[in-house]
Fold:
Amino acid sequence: MTAKPNPTLRGALGRAILIVALANLAYFGVEFTVALRIESASLLADAADFLEDAAVNLLILLGLGWSARNRARLGRLLALVLLAPALAFLWTLWRKLQAPVVPAADLLSLTGLGALAVNLSCAFLLARYRNHEGGLTRAAFLSARNDAIANVGIILAGGVTLLTRSLWPDVLVGGAIAWMNIDAAREVLAAARGESDPQP
Structure:
């Protein structure tokens, strides 16, 4: 059973989560704008992921101090929220296949590099708290970690796009981002189930 953090640790965790939420919300605006400008499937999926991360962290902030049963319920809700980028990717893929456009490789990689810096900072900030408050902080840490991995893929997709002038590297990375979020949702749901109070 996860140890209950002391008030000092919980306060530090709350501040860390708020910083992460605001950082994700700010970079969502940057990435969403660039994604629309260059018509990138991977950036649009990742932008949806930044917005989802901001929402997840704000929900986690609300849930700190709740009972294990209520945290488990919120964890199940967060598992559903983690699926948002997958849905965004499917919508983007459908639009892209209707009107194929090769995204600007330099902006794709540069925006991915900025996203990587934001997500690595968030992952390091949350790493020390990932085993506190059960599935809630695990959701935040997994989200930041997966996003950092996805951003490396976006940077590489930009390089391959520059060499091949193909739209497929962008599409494939967008699909990988969607898959990672589905897997993270599964892990958070499992943690939420494990955290539920035993039935009488």
User: Anything to note?
Assistant: The chain has seven helices and no strands. Helices lie at 7-38, 41-63, 68-81, 84-98, 105-127, 135-164, 168-195.
